[in-house]
Amino acid sequence: xxxxxxxxxxxxxxxxxxxxxxxxxxxxxxxxxxxxxxxxxxxxxxxxxxxxxxxxxxxxxxxxxxxxxxxxxxxxxxxxxxxxxxxxxxxxxxxxxxxxxxxxxxxxxxxxxxxxxxxxxxxxxxxxxxxxxxxxxxxxxxxxxxxxxxxxxxxxxxxxxxxxxxxxxxxxxxxxxxxxxxxxxxxxxxxxxxxxxxxxxxxxxxxxxxxxxxxxxxxxxxxxxxxxxxxxxxxxxxxxxxxxxxxxxxxxxxxxxxxxxxxxxxxxxxxxxxxxxxxxxxxxxxxxxxxxxxxxxxxxxxxxxxxxxxxxxxxxxxxxxxxxxxxxxxxxxxx
Length: 335
Hints:
Low-confidence stretches: 4-31
């Protein structure tokens, strides 16, 4: 027979369980625990990440202390920056044509190219006016054509980086994204000018800022742009200043996707290739996830030792977060 004191204790325990349940994120569809992947990573200040499109176990991490490579899904890292004369790595890209060809951008020493999977590098900045590189990219069709965004302008090379020509006149280019199907279509995010688009490979540009947020009269420049792999007219722009924007008409108009983001600074956005409804965003207050195409967001930062997340990459089996001060973390979604 249960006494009054026992009944009170049971009631208090039940109340505590209910209160705890109420504090859980009601939107989160699953448990999300990140695990560190820093063995061999001598710098924990990660500024960019890249995954080999031909082998998802091969990852690259650009840090404030050099460039690193992992061949086992981030379990172990090794430095791979022989020939790079700067330890401040700002951008990294793997060729979609050959996995052993890579581009590396630095803050202060320009662009470097590797043709042996990152073992050795050669400087490739002839014609680039600014040595501060913000983004690099390979052309999806032409293996010799590459792009480099800088604080001065954007440049294009048609000979694998041996020589460069400007293809965008304004400075402070934050990002560059090529349409996944139409090679002549590119988008750039430019400080004070917002988002611009070319349909002729960079000969002419048009602003595409309808609906983008403005700060003190200037359009916010996207720090990153990503496409829905199943419908490229659907695009996402991480504006870096406030939340995230979405376009469903190829960038002609944009709308703020802020439900749950709570005015976070979004640095990077990635669409899950296996399910285009799922998005991941790197923010100044952890990682955010959407399961409905950006209509709503929830925090998924359990296990992260720092909230300053700079980069996100998504593979078929895992999500990787590059943080500024905590290194690289891995999360494996439930199937």
